[in-house]
């Protein structure tokens, strides 16, 4: 999913993974597994019987040092083998977006993780722009760590 033109912060990174796009999608859309790779996510749980379809909500749990929080998150794109995108606070609030995009490659899949913010979350309203930019820079490091973890967890493609 393309980031919004009005994004106030944006980071992305890509990695090659020796697995099919569908296998990679199954990894990135598994809320419990994300906690194994992400330096911030501690997992999540689907709300109201959600299964990961567009419009489904989940509670995303996070922790940085001593600070822990849970956010309501809405799935914005769920195209197996291509795109799993969600937005903290829901699509209507248009705040913090996370996107995992898969493209077939010669070695299996190119996985691109994107993060962008359109409207600051409530916890960031009173923070300076410099603090916000520091958060963006830290997010890039987390994305790179997460991608490495997904790559290590992926099973090679058949064939």
What does this structure look like?
With 159 residues, this protein is an alpha+beta fold. It has a single domain (9-153), classed as Alpha-D-Glucose-1,6-Bisphosphate, Chain A, domain 4 (2-Layer Sandwich). The chain contains three helices and seven strands. Strands 1-7-6-5-4-3-2 form a seven-stranded antiparallel β-sheet. The radius of gyration is 15 Å and the shape is globular.
Features:
seven-stranded antiparallel beta sheet; Alpha-D-Glucose-1,6-Bisphosphate, Chain A, domain 4; alpha+beta; 3 helices
**Major sheet characteristics:** 7 strands, antiparallel
User: Tally the helices: what do you get?
Assistant: 3
CATH homologous superfamily caption: START domain
Assign the CATH topology. Answer: Alpha-D-Glucose-1,6-Bisphosphate, Chain A, domain 4
Please indicate the count of domains: 1
Beta-sheet strand percentage?
35-45%
Distance between the termini: 29 Å
Fraction of helical residues: 25-40%
**Poorly predicted tracts of residues:** none
Strands in their spatial order, largest beta sheet: 1-7-6-5-4-3-2
């Amino acid at each position: 999913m393309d980031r919004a033109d009005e994004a106030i912060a944006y980071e992305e990174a890509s990695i090659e993974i020796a697995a099919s796009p569908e296998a990679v999608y199954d990894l990135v859309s598994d809320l419990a597994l994300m906690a194994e790779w992400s330096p911030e996510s501690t997992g999540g749980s689907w709300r109201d019987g959600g299964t990961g379809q567009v419009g489904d909500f989940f509670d995303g749990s996070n922790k940085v040092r001593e600070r822990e929080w849970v956010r309501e998150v809405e799935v914005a794109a769920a195209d197996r083998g291509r795109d799993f995108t969600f937005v903290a606070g829901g699509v209507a609030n248009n705040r913090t977006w996370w996107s995992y995009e898969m493209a077939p490659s010669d070695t299996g899949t190119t996985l691109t993780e994107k993060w962008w913010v359109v409207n600051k979350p409530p916890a960031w309203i009173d923070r300076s722009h410099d603090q916000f930019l520091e958060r963006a820079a830290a997010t890039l490091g987390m994305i790179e760590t997460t991608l490495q973890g997904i790559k290590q967890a992926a099973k090679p493609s058949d064939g």
